[in-house]
Recover the amino acids of this structure.
């Protein structure tokens, strides 16, 4: 019996099905790995881009804060310039200015031979000939005119001539007082550095006085200079507080510069472009990249420090006439009561933290994604750190001192009590001392001493040369950083050559973009011609006893000052403004001078040499910003200004202990722009 062999039907090809299932599985695993890798890579790239955006935005803020701190210190320097004029230049005629090696408070005695005539405050009195020093006299005596004798024709003629001479003497005596008051008034209020806008509307007498004192009072006065610096600070403040924007795309950012002041929008532009360029064109669709700024509406709150004070000039006023109508001229210090709330600086309110945070969204191109391009989101935050604008406790009491006595004026019932301008100088100084110290004033006086030495050199001799170059160098010396300011201010400098930062060129100045008024404000109708209006309107004439005493501060003086500031602003628009070094400023560009160097006309750089008790001379004193670094060489070299660091959202939402002193709290946490962001930020913060 035979056996039949064969195969069942429809059993071939089973391995193909198994192979297909295995290949599909392998492909899905492969696609999953590829998708996961691409997704992780896209997420990392997006987070890197968000980090770059946050860092770039905070870097713009850091630079703006650094410039703010420089301008804030420049306002303090301008106050020192006025103090030098008031304490030193205005009192060169006093005996006590020439007494070396004196310590303790200054006794403001014009003549050491008459110590009872103590003004107790600096009082401006200008002389032009050391052999005719009327400033050391308390009374300029009248000419003795004999009584009339109708029977003696010769005596009558002599008497008439003596009376005419007495009239000339009285007029000249009164002119001395007018000159002193004019100089002090210009040191405070001058709005025209060249005086050209004044001459056409001044009386002949005032023009004659102007010709005499032009060199002494050249340049802007304290109040106009401080007002202009204040406006530049307020522009930088506007830039820092520019409102946050959302929905930023490439097309929006490309057009944002045309909306107004580009400098105000620099933070937005730099942050977005840093993220956009970091992402590149391959992984993300350019049209899907969207950035939102996560910030409070206010990033900084600057509180102005305003001062009011009394500054004094020696006026010569006529006493009661005798029987022949001759009168003594009596010297008395009269106060200029400055009630303009002069801005001398700003302090940063610790309740406001400056930071920058972003949300970055984009659709990633995933090769095997069944859902198409996937939208990813990343968050990042950073903040400026490491420096300061001014001490948080800074107030007006640092810039003035009370007069030492109650009724301080001599030969008059005028009450001169009030506050006198001043500043601390030494390391552990107080406003009561400061510029009122003998050794401080001696060092400042030596800036003028004509002994052939360099700035600050000491030596014998009492001759003083006052010319334009001597004054320019003396002003720079007077405005040097003082030991009292160490660690309290951010002072622009080039100590210890830094390969990353070089502030000054060969001319020893730095040009800075800081418009007097931003283009956004100009578009809103802010008028730069009003910059001094309120301050000038508050001007009051100095007190005088005798109504017959002439004064340049008449009803037209305010109009004169307004005329001057309008002319100066017109020159600023053309780049023809001036700073202390005579360098042209512009409406939008300011120039900061190296505070440690003189700037002679040759342009050469010479380090100011003053005693260390009144001048910081070393980098470790000046470069005190963010110096707590592990690298010893970097720590020794020091740093100036603000840097940037990344911060967590936990820190931004937890204000306790977040400020530099670790005790104050701030009140401007991030504001969520939508519900999703709020939920996501809460998860990030926890």
């Amino acid at each position: 019996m035979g056996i039949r062999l064969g195969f069942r039907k429809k059993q071939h090809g089973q391995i193909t099905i198994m192979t297909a299932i295995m290949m599909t599985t392998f492909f899905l695993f492969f696609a999953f790995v590829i998708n996961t890798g691409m997704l992780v890579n896209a997420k990392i790239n997006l987070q890197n881009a968000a980090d770059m955006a946050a860092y770039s935005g905070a870097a713009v803020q850091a630079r703006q804060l650094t410039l703010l701190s420089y301008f804030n210190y420049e306002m303090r320097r301008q106050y020192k310039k006025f103090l030098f004029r008031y304490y030193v230049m205005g009192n060169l005629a006093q005996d006590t200015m020439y007494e070396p090696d004196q310590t303790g408070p200054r006794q403001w005695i014009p003549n050491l031979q008459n110590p009872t005539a103590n003004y107790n405050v600096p009082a401006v009195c200008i002389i032009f000939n050391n052999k005719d020093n009327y400033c050391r006299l308390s009374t300029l005596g009248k000419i003795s005119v004999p009584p009339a004798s109708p029977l003696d024709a010769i005596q009558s003629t002599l008497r008439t001539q003596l009376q005419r001479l007495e009239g000339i003497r009285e007029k000249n005596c009164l002119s001395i007082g007018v000159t002193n008051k004019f100089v002090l008034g210009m040191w405070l209020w001058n709005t025209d550095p060249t005086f050209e806008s004044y001459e056409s509307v001044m009386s002949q007498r005032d023009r004659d006085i102007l010709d005499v004192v032009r060199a002494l009072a050249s340049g802007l006065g304290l109040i106009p200079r401080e007002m202009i610096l204040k406006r530049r600070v307020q522009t930088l403040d506007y830039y820092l507080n520019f409102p946050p924007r959302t929905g930023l795309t490439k097309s929006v950012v490309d057009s944002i510069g045309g909306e107004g002041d580009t400098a105000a929008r620099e933070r937005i532009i730099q942050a977005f472009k840093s993220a956009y360029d970091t992402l590149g064109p391959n992984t993300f669709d350019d049209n899907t990249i969207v950035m939102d700024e996560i910030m409070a509406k206010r990033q900084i709150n600057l509180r102005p420090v305003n001062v009011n004070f009394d500054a004094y000039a020696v006026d010569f006023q006529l006493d009661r006439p005798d029987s022949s109508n001759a009168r003594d001229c009596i010297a008395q210090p009269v106060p200029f009561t400055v009630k303009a709330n002069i801005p001398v600086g700003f302090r940063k309110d610790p309740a406001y933290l400056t930071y920058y945070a972003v949300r970055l969204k984009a659709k990633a191109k995933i090769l095997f994604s069944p859902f198409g391009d996937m939208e990813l989101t990343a968050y990042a935050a950073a903040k400026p750190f490491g420096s300061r604008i001014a001490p948080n406790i800074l107030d007006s009491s640092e810039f003035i001192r009370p007069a030492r006595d109650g009724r301080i004026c001599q030969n008059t019932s005028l009450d001169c009590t009030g506050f006198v301008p001043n500043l601390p100088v030494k390391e552990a100084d107080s406003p009561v001392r400061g510029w009122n110290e003998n050794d401080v004033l001696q060092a400042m006086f030596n800036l003028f001493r004509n002994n052939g030495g360099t700035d600050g050199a000491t030596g014998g001799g009492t001759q003083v040369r006052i010319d334009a170059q001597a004054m320019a160098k003396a002003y720079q010396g007077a405005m040097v950083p003082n030991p009292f300011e160490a660690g309290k201010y951010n002072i622009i400098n080039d100590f210890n050559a830094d390969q990353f930062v070089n502030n000054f060129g060969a001319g020893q100045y730095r040009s800075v973009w800081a418009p007097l008024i931003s283009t956004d404000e100009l578009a809103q109708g802010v008028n730069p011609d009003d910059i001094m209006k309120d301050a000038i309107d508050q001007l009051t004439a100095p007190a005088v006893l005798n109504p017959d005493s002439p004064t340049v501060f008449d009803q037209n003086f305010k109009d004169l000052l307004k005329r001057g500031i309008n002319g100066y602003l017109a020159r600023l628009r053309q780049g023809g403004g001036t700073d202390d070094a005579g360098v042209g400023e512009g409406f939008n560009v300011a120039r900061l001078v190296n505070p440690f160097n003189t700037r002679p006309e040759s342009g050469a750089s010479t380090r100011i040499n003053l005693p260390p008790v009144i001048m910081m001379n070393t980098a470790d004193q000046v470069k005190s910003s963010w110096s707590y670094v592990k690298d010893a060489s970097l720590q020794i070299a020091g740093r100036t200004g603000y840097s940037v660091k990344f911060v967590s959202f936990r820190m931004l939402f937890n204000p306790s202990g977040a400020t530099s002193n670790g005790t104050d709290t701030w009140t401007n946490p991030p504001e969520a722009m939508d519900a999703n962001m709020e939920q996501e930020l809460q998860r990030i913060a926890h």
About this structure: The radius of gyration is 36 Å. Residues 43-685 form one domain. The CA atoms of residues 224 and 532 lie 7 Å apart.
